[in-house]
Amino acid sequence: MTASEENGEFGAVDSDGHTTIIVLGASGDLAKKKTFPAIFNLLKHNFITPGHTDIIGYARSKLSREDFETRMLGHLKEPTKELKATFLKMCSYVAGTYEEPDGFIELEKHIQELEKKSGAEKCHRLFYMALPPTVFIPCAKHLKENCYGRKGGWNRLIVEKPFGKDLDSSRTLANALAKYWTEAEVYRIDHYLGKEMVKNIIAVRFGNIVFSNVWNRNCISNVQITFKEPFGTEGRGGYFDEYGIIRDVMQNHLLQVLTLVAMERPITLSAADIRNEKVRVLRSLEPLDMEDMLFGQYVKSRDGERPGYLDDKTVPKGSRTPTFCCGVFRIQNERWEGVPFIIKSGKALNEAKVEVRIQFKDIPGLLFDQPTSRNEFVIRLQPNESIYLKLMNKVPGLGNEVGLAEMDLSYKSRFPEARIPDAYEALVLDVLAGDQANFVRSDELDLAWQLFTPILEEYEEKGIQPEAYEYGSRGPEQTKDFMARYGFVRDRTQYTWVPKESKYKAKTAVQPPLRRTSSTAHKFGNLANSRSPWAGST
């Protein structure tokens, strides 16, 4: 966290009137672990303020005030006694069902009481549906009919994934929401778009001229987007089995990352311009081919200590749901034709890692007496957020041996005092500011399901069996050959990347972000004169 952030230098986003944040599903795990901590952090860092913002929890559970507070406080990070008291004073709770209007009528009465007490002429309402998809439609309907604010302020609705299970269910949900809420009011949250390193992709790509002439099919051999979890379903297989790794991770999180890596430079940083470019990428994707897909399902670990997927008692017997998938995506445009985008995701693997790995082509001709490895540009999204470029370098000494080294921007080392906000915190702040750039638009969602639904249906219709892989391994044994088939070449020289740890305390950890405004349509050209946080350093 920077000093300017600590002092609230950027200005609160709730200063224009009064804002009520209504968290629906307030008794659930998502609200407890993510939503309330995100709102608390906005208070902690002065983006919302007492007197200008009130927070209401709404759920079926008939919780006492004490029970509600216990649920909210359990996952807050570093709450001081004073800040905790302030946060609790801003919070209240209303119990009610999601299917019937009665609870929403009571909710409206409570909102009006808070708005009247604030004395503000302009009142805004943010509805966060931290709910299962089965109640999205009735809840959205009752909110619009009973709780929609009309005191000169805005109304915004946050919808959590999953946004359907296939194209038909997604369109049903989209059409139902559209009956009551405009596209400008709906914020479909994909928390990966709130991650610091995902948001950094645009800055790295379009803020550095060094990438302008190499970010294309002339220089790039392949692009990998990898998601690895070191744990399995751990007793929650019933929910996972309904969706599988493709619906749970690939169709949303990783496909969004692909669009940011592949898109053209937007005209401005406005939400419309950024999302227009992402849609252009989705429209350019070829239909997926089953020949370009590899499915896996984990079995027990080699030592027998970790159970297999089918050993989870909550998983249906004989389930074929994949816990691992590797797929190849092809973009038919001038920049990317012929470059495979390989998306790989899996549970119960050997490590926790999410990264983008751009592998460049081999140098033509043979100059050195030993093999050389390909350059790779890696964006490590989590953990150990970093950006590094692997390149060949002369090994120090009297000989002419070359080896792999890296130019490494590890965030812990370069920005030792910077606070990387949680994705939910960043996204809730975006909603309060009215910035939709990091949220999924309805046409994006529709195109994503058009891409994945046929392959999901073919998987079921043909009864395809996923390849077995051991818990704690790198995935199915076929993965290595599968990757090689699409041009990925492993390092020809020995190399292991080790993230840097902080070795110094910088005087200025990071450049403060711009003050939040209602418009985010900043031209890229305007960034040219911005001061670098390490200007003048060597």
**DSSP E strands, number:** 15
Computed over alpha carbons, the radius of gyration is 25 Å
Distance between the termini: 24 Å
Low-confidence parts lasting 5 or more residues at pLDDT below 50?
1-10, 503-538
Name the beta content range.
15-25%
Task: Briefly note the structural class of the backbone.
Answer: alpha/beta
Largest sheet: 9 strands, mixed
Q: How many individual helices? A: 14
Write out the strand line-up for the largest beta sheet, numbering strands in chain order: 14-13-12-11-7-10-9-8-15
Global geometry: globular
Tell me the series of helices and strands, N- to C-terminal: HEHEHHEHEHEHEHEHHEEEEEEEHHHEH
How much helical structure, as a percent, in the residues?
A: 25-40%
Would you tell me the overall average pLDDT?
87
Question: Could you explain the architecture of this structure?
Answer:
The chain is α/β, with parallel strands linked by helices and 538 residues long. It has 14 helices and 15 strands. It has helices at 3-6, 29-44, 65-73, 81-90, 102-118, 136-146, 167-180, 196-206, 237-262, 271-284, 411-414, 423-433, 442-461, 479-485; strands at residues 18-24, 53-59, 91-95, 123-129, 152-160, 186-189, 220-228, 293-299, 324-330, 340-346, 353-360, 376-382, 386-394, 402-410, 467-470. The strands form 2 sheets. The protein has a 9-stranded mixed β-sheet, with helices on both faces. It has a 6-stranded parallel β-sheet with strand order 3-2-1-4-5-6, with helices on both faces. A hairpin with a 3-residue loop joins strand 12 (376-382) and strand 13. The radius of gyration is 25 Å and the shape is globular.
